[in-house]
Amino acid sequence: MPPPPPPPPPLGRGRKGTAQSFDAALDDAELVVARSALAQGRWTAVRSLLAVTGDEWDRRGHRVTALAQEPTTLAWARDWRLAEPESADASVLLACATVQRALDGKDRPERAREACHAAAVLAPADPTPWLGLLTLERTLGAETDVVRLFDEVRHRHPEHHQAHHLMVARLAERRAQAGQDPLHEVYDFANWAAEQAPADSPLAILPVVAHAERYRVLATAGSESADPAASGHWVGRRARQVMKAAFDWWLEWEHDDHPRRLLDLNFLAHAKSCEGRGAEAAALFHRIGPHATPVPWSYPDRDPYKAFRTARASALGTV
Q1: Which of 73, 80, 112, 231 could disulfide-pair with 224, CB 3.0 to 4.6 Å?
Q2: Residue 195 contacts by C-beta under 8 Å, 6 or more apart in sequence?
Q3: 164 has a pLDDT exceeding 90
């Protein structure tokens, strides 16, 4: 592995507090440019972006999801679909933007479901409309619906990164009062998914994600400390094995081109920080640079910006 680059620059301070410190686009510069154009009503930039993305399903899901989170996207996506009613890309973007509106309580969930099904008709091979439905039902739906929609996504792209994360988050919420159980089904699912994927798949990090999601549930229920580093959740034998395997995978297989790799690195840096492995955490923080993600640093109810900065400073020896 090459020597780490210089320490990352300080995170910028946003005008509206921590919400401005995170960017769903991560380090996708092309997405940032197209998103800025869309905010000004120039939807042709997004049309070009999604056309170039093609069937890179993880990248497409990442880009559509990030665009859907912007407050102006719904209106401009409607304009795009009116101009090009047969455009699958316009329909998919509109559907996912409607899902976001429904999750924000600003639209009816049924409208979002209808939009996603309409998009799926125009793009039958695309997992993204089903990802939109999975995102919606992960919060609002029954578990049978979540499992069914996950299967729809996985049928179209077996290694879909975002869908696996959503499934892990939902499964972690089973039996919240059961306490720490190394045999909990979320761990089985994450291990199964990691084993099913090719050796170089970033789903190798999924067991770490499962560990963090289960901590969120347990800490919220009051059976784990609200301070993740003090909870002991990351220092048991099984936990250490999971973290070591994931870190070793990263050393061997690190991908610079996966659109959501920085989310994985944030989960892994969080785990190594909680485990007390400062040198390993520092290597990860070097790779992350300024690209912090709200989860898992917010778990269970912390200020994620402050938690990230504190953990990074400690690992880099700057406190």
Answers
A1: 231
A2: none
A3: yes
